[in-house]
Amino acid sequence: xxxxxxxxxxxxxxxxxxxxxxxxxxxxxxxxxxxxxxxxxxxxxxxxxxxxxxxxxxxxxxxxxxxxxxxxxxxxxxxxxxxxxxxxxxxxxxxxxxxxxxxxxxxxxxxxxxxxxxxxxxxxxxxxxxxxxxxxxxxxxxxxxxxxxxxxxxxxxxxxxxxxxxxxxxxxxxxxxxxxxxxxxxxxxxxxxxxxxxxxxxxxxxxxxxxxxxxxxxxxxxxxxxxxxxxxxxxxxxxxxxxxxxxxxxxxxxxx
Length: 256
Prior knowledge:
The protein has helices spanning 10-15, 24-37, 41-46, 105-109, 111-123, 134-144, 153-162, 180-186, 188-197, 210-213, 241-247, and strands spanning 70-74, 98-99, 102-103, 165-169, 204-208, 226-229. By secondary structure, it is an alpha/beta fold. It has a single domain (1-256), classed as Uracil-DNA glycosylase-like domain (Uracil-DNA Glycosylase, subunit E), CATH 3.40.470. Helix 2 packs antiparallel against helix 9 and helix 5 crosses helix 11 (241-247). The mean pLDDT is 95.
């Protein structure tokens, strides 16, 4: 006897339109896997307030499946409506990266993004690990306006996309009244389907933080190369040797 897939809330089906067509059947399968594992979860979520808004639940899947070379996994969306874009660590409130004093105010407000950019500056040799404060950043920011550096977060996202990054959150949603680990657990069957779909292209998993690290327990993940670190909201992330080695050759802060 075949199992009839459970009904998926219409709003979530509509959100599939933002994903690349190569992903859409896999994402639908992933939603069905979530519904089979926890039947009440998606209907309850559809009736709740969550981020990201604007049908951006699957915005991270804009890159064609066959073009994925890295899967960067964080915890969950930023806890602010303007910031949560559905794309891991890409804060929608951030435009310009730089100001006269260093990094722009919106970047500094997004702690994880701020530390990621500082790590990239260390990888580029523009900052020294252990000295990444305002006094060190000010001349770097001044030079960045004229030296062929990217100027906006959108350009950083474009560079990551060109390198083949799928920028994914372990929990696809943020709810102020629900612990991120709980939502992440509910999305685990979905992530299993995503990783199964990626077996043929065999990307490198870049796992940031304890929630993302739980993906290592999923069947099949042992076939992927993996790079792990603490979550970027930790200052120690800036000098993480594995992250510096991974990102140094990419020169993500340079205009392509």
